[in-house]
User: Fold this.
Amino acid sequence: MTTTASGTTASHGKKDALTCDALTVLQPGFTGTTAPDWLLRRLGEGLASVGLFGRNIASSEQLAALTAQLRAEREDVLVAIDEEGGDVTRLEVRTGSSFPGNHALGAVDDVELTRAVAHELGRRLAECGVNLNWAPSADVNSNPDNPVIGVRSFGASTELAARHTAAYVTGLQSAGVAACTKHFPGHGDTAVDSHHAVPRIDVDTDVLQARELAPFRAAIAAGTKAVMSAHILVPALDPDRPGTLSHRVLTELLRGEMGYDGLIVTDGMEMRAIADTYGIERGSVLAIAAGADAICVGGGLADEGIVRSLRDALVAAVRSGELPEERLADAAERVRALARWTTTAATAARSAADPEVGLRAARRALRVTVTESFTPLTEPPYVAALTPVANIAVGDETPWGVAAELFRLLPGTETGSFTGDDAGRAVLEAAGARRVVAVVRDEHRHPWMAAALDVLLKDRPDTIVVEMGVPQATPRGALHLATHGAARVCGRAAAEVIAGA
Assistant:
């Protein structure tokens, strides 16, 4: 079966255009490291996008083979991935990322470095056949208690977030990979994770314009090919519906007032902010009607049944008159237009690899505070990871910390993971006479973590503290290292200082 330039199959006539369009706007996931038969069949019927997650990736070679398998069925398929670098990595889900995340890049505040990091990340994605990245996060982390953005943001400064968002978009797309700037209209000032419920931002339109929207304007000016909507309620814009389902947010604001003409992708529709309030099928219809062009689904739902049910829901909505057929057709054409861009961009973008750019950035992002006289360690320490519950965007399958890198420099290093009210005493018992390196993640958000450090530092004032989240708490310990993220390269940069490498 062949695919025409418009994205419909040659064996499908005009009567099937509606069904084809309904498939075209979906971005589903799947399980396994090879494409299942149902997915290949749907690509032949009009499906134009596929979303990849950590469960789909075993190695770069395997990923390249997988994307080649998809393109054998549809040459212009959009292969999307949630690869932010830093804490949120799918390409290196089992090892930790070779790239620091946004917060580290913001801490350095060198837009050329951000552009170079994004370009190298994009080059590696393109080399594996991935052509759409659900990144960067343009959210301004104005609420330090935010449970889901944090180090995924460039920082709490609007101006900083705007210039680095633009640099990231430019760097990624110069490698032939479309950027998808998220989470519109801005997820930074929330205290709820939209994976679990509907967050709410109660600020007036002047604040939104000056703070939340500025990085998205910068991304649009930089030519971002896609924007991802957020499942957040912003009453100043729409008191009734979250951004993903709001005509006011997506069509009137993003398209009309901000002049954006690229692809609008929803955040995962299986997230509870949508699934528990509207339902996935109903939510998808409302999202397309509101102005979204592509329905992201598959982070937690990954089978043929969900694709079929969403396709059928969209077709039924058109036939009932709830969803205008021309709106669905317009959305499908925007998906195909981006697919066409990726085929030309991939051949135009060829550049030399820069494998050390991520490590260079991580080293520059490191903030070192010596509160007592510190001498680099020469004996293997005990690394105590004070481990909070990982948010769903990050996941708990990606290793983090400094233990592996310290073991490489100081063989014999031991480690353990601790949580809860007795964590401090448990660390002291496990460490024995060894020097303690306490690794924390967002100490300021976790009272039990701060209490554990209190216990450790009272008994062992020579404890070294490594903060791998947002460094909001006051530095303490004989040596305090703020890495601004928990990527593997951030751990390496910290280990080098601890061991004097």
